[in-house]
């Protein structure tokens, strides 16, 4: 649909070399594959002052059209390597681009939208919000879509704290994507350090993962989704330092159990302490046994993630 509206692939933007390195030697040699990575010019395309967004619905992943010898693109920011191609739908920047191209903006009275939102030209009484914000004026944390995951609003201090959560889905096809949100805030003028600890997931980055927004909130954040499935240690990922006094963590999941842990503190609080030992489900079918969590002590012990019975801080 975006092509029909005149939108080029995102990695074809004329400013793409500032954000990705394209590796032609890793692209299939046929002309159609090679042409997917042609770079546009400012004379034949218009970015309308939108920002380069690794999470654009029009951005290829790092293995699209690969000949098997390596990634076709490498992100300038390594934490965005898997953001590319993990598209769930049009990003905030995508929508802004199309609205500007078709002169849809400027027809609504001022609505005092917050957090860089703007009045929806199809409904002037509602703001279009960047991901991670909701409400009429984009000043609320999204409620999420899964009753088992409520998210939270947390406050960073000079003491490292642990945040954790689970967003579980059936192991079956045809399940809708669910979302859950955390806001981590700090006093105005301060910044926040985030140290990822661990994650358990059972599907690819397009179906399950964690997004950490720590910079420009109008852009897609870092998509964290380790290779393989099951439990993954994330402590090898460098500490993420926000550029403002807010960090947004979003879980998204369409397949199986998913949980995460991370530590957070005000920047300058020193290195984070070692995370606690992992708390993992010991049965592979814990999601199917969730109804027994409160009636069978063995299930609550063997399925602590699903039953939410991990020790505090784990």
Automatic annotation (TrEMBL):
Residues 279-310 form the ShKT domain. Pfam families: Astacin. Transmembrane segments: none annotated. Keywords: Disulfide bond, EGF-like domain, Hydrolase, Metal-binding, Metalloprotease, Protease, Zinc, Zymogen. It comes from the Eukaryota. Residues 1-109 form the Peptidase M12A domain. This is Metalloendopeptidase. It comes from Acrobeloides nanus. The lineage of its organism: Eukaryota, Metazoa, Ecdysozoa, Nematoda, Chromadorea.
